[in-house]
Amino acid sequence: MARQLSYIFGASDKPLLGETIGQNLKKTVQKFPDRDALICIKQNYKVTYKEFWDQVTIVSKALIAKGIISGDRVGIWAPNRHEWVLLQYASARIGAILVNINPAYRTNELKFVLRQSGIRLLVSALVFKTSDYKKMVEKVAKYCPELKEVVFFDDDWEDFLESASTVSDKKLEQFESIVQFDHPVNIQYTSGTTGFPKGVTLSHHNLINNGYFIAERLHYTEKDRVCIPVPFYHCFGMVIGNLACTTHGACMVIPDESFNPVTTLEAVQKEKCTSLYGVPTMFITELQLPDFNEYDLTSLRTGVMAGSPCPTEVMKEVQTKMYMKEISICYGMTETSPVSTQTIIGTSLEKQVSTVGTIQDHLEIKIINPETGEIVERGVSGEVCTRGYSVMLKYWNNSKATQEVIDEGRWMHSGDLGIMDEEGYINISGRIKDVIIRGGENISPREIEEFLYTNPVIEDVQVIGVPSEKFGEEIMAWVKIKKGESVTDKDLTRFCKDQIAHYKIPKYWKFVSSFPTTITGKVRKGEMKEISIKELGLENLLKIKTS
To answer: What stretches of 391-524 show up as alpha helix (H) in DSSP?
Structure first.
């Protein structure tokens, strides 16, 4: 009998939503006008869906007053706050494209994103943690000819909102009437294997449907209250978080500007949240709080864990001590809006910790031999490919990179190695791509290498990932110094500070006179990794992979 092939289609009795984000939000507001829509605890902010709609309307008009038209790029550079959410929905209503900028970015990365996407209006926080956003914006603005104006939340936001009074309801309706669900609505920058990040361009259709079907699998209703400590600049926050809520009338609860285990659990307790999100590290940190048992988390029912595999014991504690018996595991990539697979409520503990779930509704997944492109049999490792409504439109202004990952059949090639079992559940067993994933952040080794090459004492450098118990992977740089020069690891760390995001700065440095290479001269990063793991004593963190 012929073996079953690694292909699966997400059959569904619910149709895709053929509407824009603005149209969908309007329907939710009409259904649940008096339900809580958005709560931001740190800002003491709380609105119903009717109030949320009215405030989104004001921000929409303010954007128009600033000269933003359909297709213009509006940048948002800020941590989680209520204005971020208002801008997300306002830009969508008028047909603008919101460009998410990572709050951890420094000047080098900020300048690249502003120029590459052609941002016309930037909305930004003044400061966040150790970052002086205003100073960085002033430093790079002269290199960004398309940037016409910057609105800083704590300086200019009120004036920005007041400008809305110059725009009529009729004018706003004209803008809304031309927005189509296949239009681009969002650009998110993601690191790959080469150079600078690429701008993943996503449509209303991509995002609204992914949010909707994630929420369907979580059994969301207007009675759910979702604690979102994950960042909005990432799909986890703005799609799995915000759009999953607004498609179902659930309440978005923002516990803090960035993840803090104490304020997260306080938010769950205070707002009686029914759902909580995070990467495994976040849940581990919450469970390890000295006063964890003093929090009342009995309102919790479900949630999402994504970003990296979850240890079995952690999952058991989340389900029992945090009452999240219906927690769901999600897997995907920014390029697929982001979720391609998700566990179904009621899935066994074994499936929840050893797999990333099964196919999402209306999508297709196949696992192929990366060398031949042929679909492999179930139980055999190969590259995971996704096709369907969720696949991005393109990488912004980068057709070459787009063609490298989306083939003629519109399959998105993930670069991840996976195995599909007989029930269609998928286990991610490794990566083809030379990309480091640290705490859920995709990091391009090449981008860090290119930056380090700008140091005048460095002759050559190779960046790799090594295992980390806390973050999954940490960054290590092997450095070859020019003859007659000298430098220390502390010198190089200082060189990186304030120039690249903190999570891209190597934790480990190794100074070498040469790199291991193949006969043809290609650097053997696999061998470098083996040597480093042994020298650093990290063997116990290696996971056994099955093929």
So the answer is: 399-405, 445-452, 489-496
Three-class SS state of 205: helix
Scanning the structure block, which residue is given the tokens 């900020």? 110
419 and 381 Cβ atoms separated by less than 8 Å: yes
Determine contact, residues 502/449, Cβ cutoff 8 Å.
Answer: no
354 exposed, middle or buried (CB, 10 Å; 0-12, 13-18, 19+)?
Answer: middle
488 CB-contact burial (10 Å; exposed 0-12 / middle 13-18 / buried 19+): exposed
- The first and second tokens of residue 521, run together, are 């001269």
130: its two tokens: 């150790």
What is the token pair recorded at 499?
Answer: 């120039």
Q: Average pLDDT of the chain? A: 93
Rounded to whole angstroms, the Cα distance separating 200 from 137 reads: 23
pLDDT in tens, 169-196: 999 999 999 999 999 999 999 875 456 7
> Could you tell me the two tokens for 209?
């449907």
Give this prediction's pTM: 0.85
For 224-279, the three-class secondary structure string (H helix, E strand, C coil) is: CEEECCCCCCCHHHHHHHHHHHHCCCCEEEECCCCCCHHHHHHHHHHHCCCEEEEC
Q: What tokens were used for 39?
A: 């709560």
Are the C-beta atoms of 199 and 97 separated by less than 8 Å?
no
SS3 call for 138: helix
